[in-house]
Design brief:
alpha+beta, 2 helices, globular
Amino acid sequence: MPAELRRARLARAGERRGRRDAGRALWATLLLALAVGWGPAPAPAGADVGASVHPSFLPDALGARTAFSFALRLRGPGEDGVPPPVRRMVIHLPAGLGIDLSGAPSCRPARLRRSGPRGCPPGSLVGRGHATLAVHAGSQSIPEQAVVQAFRAPDRGGRPALMILSRGDTPLQQQTLSTGSLAPDRPPYGLKLIVSVPPIPTLVLEPEASIVSFSLTVGSAGARPRAHTAAGTVTVPRRCPAGGFPFAADFSFSDFTASRAAARIPCP
């Protein structure tokens, strides 16, 4: 075979091997891309949000009229511990817990937004509390202290409803109105309070604020309401299940993640 013909055949064989190698590399790249795109989804950012709840009765006696306090804390997975903003809370209350708001007149949401607490009828205040928010300012988060007040709202579908007003003064002057309603719940719970939380604006071009802690006291102890209580009647269940009174809270965040916390009040 002439040398020129052998060189031509060798050149064509080399081109075929090059095309095969290039094809294999292309398929490997495509398979890697598909594996990355179709592989297990990364864990959501809010999946590691730590939540805790702290319920209490004062006094804590079976069948007693009481001041019921419910506190919660949230902590995000980052170094600063700021959780994503909450969009919804569902607070599960033990079976037999009596909550009677019928003696409190209702306040219209429009009046509360327009005139603040002064725009509501006397006696419509059913709860007081406190909240701590995290306000973003550049790379820093600044705590914002807010006063919390709960007002009786017009019933929703025949069920008692609340408006929760949070007002902060430092470092920002802001006001947020959340809405909630009571509904029947499944055992071991009797009622659940479903609360919708709107976005909490802060500085221009900065993310909305996040709730770090929240507490609310509803009801009063005895005939004379204490300074931290308001209208409305809360009654401790007459029976206590084994292990104590169960409470729980489900949280839904703005990044579409969720968290849950549970606690018990020991039997008296």
